[in-house]
Amino acid sequence: MKLSTAVLVAASASAPVAALQGFGQQSTGYFPYCATACYRALGSNYLSCSFDGYVPGGMMDSDSASATPACRAGNMPFLSSLAYCISTHCSYDIGIIETWWAAKSTGSGGAFEPPKWSYQEALMNVTTAPTNVLTAKDNLTSAMLANETNYRNQYGTLFMVDREEFLHEKYGLVLLMMGFGIPLLATWLGYLPFVSPLIHKLKPYIVWPSTIRSYQVRPLPYLGGSALTRGQALYVAAMTILTVVFMAVHYESYQPNLWYPGQSVELMAYVVWRTGCYSLALLPVVLLFAARNNTLLWLTNWSHETYILLHRWVARIFALLVIIHSVLSIAYYVEDGNYDSNFSEAWWVWGSVGTVAVSAMLITATPWVRRYSYEFFLLSHIVLAVFVLAGTWYHLLYLYMNMSGYEQWLYVAFGVWGLDRLFRVLRVLKNGVQRARIVDIGGDIVRVDIEGIRWGFQPGKVVYAFFPTLQPLRPWENHPFSVLPTAMLERSNAVAPALDKDSRSSLGSGTRNDVEKNVISQQIPTKQVATAAEHQPTAGITFFIRKSRGFTKQLAAGTNILALLDGPYPGNPTAPILQCDRVLLICGGIGITAILPWIDSHPNVKLAWSVKEYASPLVDSVSKVLDRVVEKDVRIGHRLDIEELLAEDTQAGWKRIGVVACGPDGMCDDTRALVTAAAKRGNAQFELEVHAYSW
């Protein structure tokens, strides 16, 4: 039961502004426990300046009238009795005692008045050791002894409460740091020279494979959700195990407890505290993983799709903790007999608002809702998230009046959520008001061109596009699209360097001397200057959209359509693929949009693309890009043989093959399974990136 003095001194409650419980300048405000126990053992008795009807703040174990802080501050019998009690029970340095005395001897928090005498001055006033023991009914009119039983119970109660709050805040910090730290650690370890080869060997076994057969992008039968890969499952398992362990360990009880009558009630209260604290600790992780401006996207090699999937699972842990917190709170107050008196309190009402909003989010975020109406899911998710944050804030505000330190967790959560929203707006403002041209190319596919955007040719970029005039009743709606440079679609095959007239005529001769001249003439540099008229504009972006239900169904051919762009954002990491000797691009249907930028990013690319008959106009739309690809396998109305494609590259002797897949759910899952199997055979080293365009 003993905490180190250094930790307790650091947790001293000398400052009115709360930090995390047990950290920084303040824990719960009870250290040193001997001094606070003396104050509480004496503080509920009448003084000469007391009046009926005043109940001291923070005296959870007292229901009797007592004195105001101003009354205590100038009352020598109280201060001398308190000083004598402290002198006989506390062995701390005088500086620690004086610090506590100056801040806590007459009250706590806002209910405090500086004492008229210092600790040593009040103690010097006790010229003769008191012998009378104070009882609950006595008026404190002279220096008296605190009741020893009351003192011990006060000390034990305060120590146990402080211990529990220190523990669950410490464990909460571990959860928060592990939530953010695991992706960083997993990525940065991969850069170590002696670790990187090991990770490459482990990827086919513990990173890429699905946990449930070959399901990953495809929805699971009956359940409808997405299966985790083994790598993703390791993260979820680590966070789940940590949460369960931290919920289960290091409970202790003190009885008779002046706050909690009975061990079961006391331990139930501690469980309520832990579930509340751990849910607060996980909230920033939940919000960051869902954010578009997720700093971990730039600091790790994990994809946005992975973070979204982990967001759902961490959010489920968070929601479960919130629900358990609420259910046990009801059980606790029913057991304690105070349910009716607390039910209408503001802190209870706002806590209920947060719990109901979390429960509603679990329902509206199910795969069935997301697939049936993504727009409804998105709007309801944002609105309910606001209610969760507001409910939690006011729950803590009315319960603790910002004196507990729990609001520090919310500051982090507000920062993550608010900065993400702010940077979204700033990105839209930076890109400015744009005009889009929409062309219906057939097969329920439209091409959207937006001129004047210069984002480069790097693969893996995603943009969230708004078209307010197409949906005037819901102008805030936006959807993610893979983006490619318009110039890439307009550029034809590379033209051979131009030669002057004499050089061209000399190439027609067949004599030896002429051949020698040819060699020389080809080595003479020729000056070339391309004019702007010879080239299509280099600025602009394009994305292809397949019409479906909801917003995309409203897309129709038109020009000068108002467009706002939030982006670009990184989708999947590109470095591991681009470091390979060979890149195999596998796509289906509209997935070609995410694949095309890879073509100009690596010198050794093979493209395999299958398109359904009705979507064949899409092939014509990207024909100029296809003409530049030396190795390609484009099939209309036929499936790709992915296993054969992998076997061909392996047999060709490539040592390190990067595979990028984007297309229908089944094709992506098949590619994952086949690449995993090929990597296990060890004939070549593989890298894999899957761009799923389902939600």
Automatic annotation (TrEMBL):
Residues passing through the membrane, by range: 171-194, 233-251, 271-292, 313-334, 346-369, 376-396
Bilayer topology term: Multi-pass membrane protein
GO CC terms in record: plasma membrane
Compartments where found: Membrane
Pfam families according to UniProt: Ferric_reduct
Transmembrane helix among keywords: yes
A GO term, aspect molecular function: ferric-chelate reductase activity
Principal place of residence: membrane
GO BP term, pick one: intracellular iron ion homeostasis
Alphabetically ordered keywords of this record: Ion transport, Membrane, Signal, Transmembrane, Transmembrane helix, Transport
InterPro entries (UniProt xref): Fe3_Rdtase_TM_dom (IPR013130), Ferric/Cupric_Reductase (IPR051410), FNR_nucleotide-bd (IPR039261)
Every Ferric oxidoreductase domain range: 275-391
Organism domain of life: Eukaryota
UniProt signal peptide: 1-19
Name this protein carries in UniProt: Ferric/cupric reductase transmembrane component B
Naturally occurring in which organism (per UniProt): Trichoderma asperellum (Filamentous fungus)
Record lineage: Eukaryota, Fungi, Dikarya, Ascomycota, Pezizomycotina
